[in-house]
């Protein structure tokens, strides 16, 4: 048992310092790991750029598709779902911005800007996973 008030303060200060160190380590690890989630599984899916036959530039999620809009259409995933897509060694973080009825066999419709960024031309097999 610690009898001196000074010794007690020293022990408590040490505990506080260790606690702060642990909190900082957890915070830094959480932020550092935010871009990659090694425990999140990858899935394969067919994807293609939106066809030019779209009658409206406004999506079912309320987004306007412009020339630089990055996003995907998916018939089931909710609007705003965060995803990481990979194709040809390129990774892109994006969101679901449309609830489209994809071409049979397709899982994702890519905005033209996203297709360009990934290098997807025509129908391609991409990898995807949920992003944090």
Would you write up a description of this structure?
With 132 residues, the chain is α/β, with parallel strands linked by helices. The protein has 2 domains: 1-32; 43-130, Beta Barrel (Barwin-like endoglucanases), CATH 2.40.40.10. 27% of the residues lie in helices and 26% in strands. It has 2 helices and 6 strands; from the N terminus they run H-E-E-E-E-E-H-E. The chain has helices at residues 5-32, 112-118, and strands at residues 43-49, 72-73, 82-87, 90-98, 108-110, 124-130. A 6-stranded mixed β-barrel has the order 1-5-2-4-3-6. Strand 3 and strand 4 (90-98) form a beta hairpin. The longest helix is centred in the N-terminal third of the chain and has 28 residues, at 5-32. The protein is elongated and about 80 Å long.
Topology summary:
Elements: H1 5-32, E1 43-49, E2 72-73, E3 82-87, E4 90-98, E5 108-110, H2 112-118, E6 124-130
Parallel strand pairs: 1-5, 2-4
Antiparallel strand pairs: 1-6, 2-5, 3-4, 3-6
Notable features of this structure?
alpha/beta; 2 domains; 132 residues; elongated; 27% helix; 2 helices; 26% strand; six-stranded mixed beta barrel; single chain; Barwin-like endoglucanases; 6 strands
Taken in chain order, the helices and strands follow as: HEEEEEHE
Mean pLDDT reading: 78
At the fourth level of CATH, the homologous superfamily of the largest domain is: RlpA-like domain
Report Rg: 23 Å
Tally of contiguous helical segments: 2
Number of strands: 6
């Amino acid at each position: 048992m610690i009898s001196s008030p000074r010794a007690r303060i020293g022990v408590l200060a040490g505990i506080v310092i260790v606690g702060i160190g642990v909190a900082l380590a957890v915070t830094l690890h959480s932020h550092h790991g935010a871009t990659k989630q090694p425990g999140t599984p990858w899935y394969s899916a067919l994807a293609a750029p939106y066809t030019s036959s779209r009658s409206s530039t406004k999506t079912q999620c309320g987004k306007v598709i412009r020339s630089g809009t990055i996003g995907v259409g998916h018939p089931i995933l909710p609007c705003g779902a965060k995803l990481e897509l990979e194709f040809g060694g390129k990774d892109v973080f994006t969101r679901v911005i449309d609830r489209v009825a994809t071409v049979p066999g397709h899982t994702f419709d890519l905005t033209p800007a996203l297709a360009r960024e990934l290098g997807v031309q025509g129908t391609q097999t991409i990898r995807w996973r949920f992003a944090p």
